[in-house]
Amino acid sequence: MTRLNLLKKVREYLARQRRKLEPIVNTDGLGEFIDTRSSLVAQTSLYGYIKTRAGTRFPDLFENEEFLQSINIAKWQIWAACVSDLAVFSGGLLYREMPDADRIRQVLQQAIDPLLARTAQPSEAGEDFSTALEKLKIRIAGVPFTDAAESENAFTVSPEALVYWAPIVDELKSLDESIVRNSIRFRWQAPRRELREALQPARVLDSLDN
Prior knowledge:
Elements: H1 3-18, H2 27-54, H3 58-61, H4 65-97, H5 101-119, H6 129-142, H7 157-165, H8 170-187, H9 189-198, H10 201-206
């Protein structure tokens, strides 16, 4: 994928974010929200970090095929981590409406399974991508939702993924780690606010039966 196409996708996600968000009343709407906001946070966080470190060399990096492979792998790994965090946060909001963890897991599964099926195994995602998806499923199957909607409690996997997978040399990552973690936590503030405002928990929970 060329630099132009990558930047175009980021602009599309930003434009989508600016559109008025419709109420989320079923699992389809919840899955769409999780997918789009995870993509937005993953890509803007990753490209923002790389651009900060690369400076004026940032455009040139996208002409390097080896670098493009690394950034595509990182992009998908961070996306999976973002889906994991946002799904758990969503579960926490639903838990406040109905403290039934098993039913919430069913809702999240019905919301997320279609987007995972659409994503499948992209050729550019690398051989470890399937492991990331499996970890996502395991987390949702076992996480307690009691405090998942409190502050940043759910958002633990995506900062770790950004630090680990970003194609930056380890010496610089060590210097940047706290700043990088805080940067992605900051980017989660808007999606959390949006979801609190748009999510209609009772209707989403009821949609599982329809």
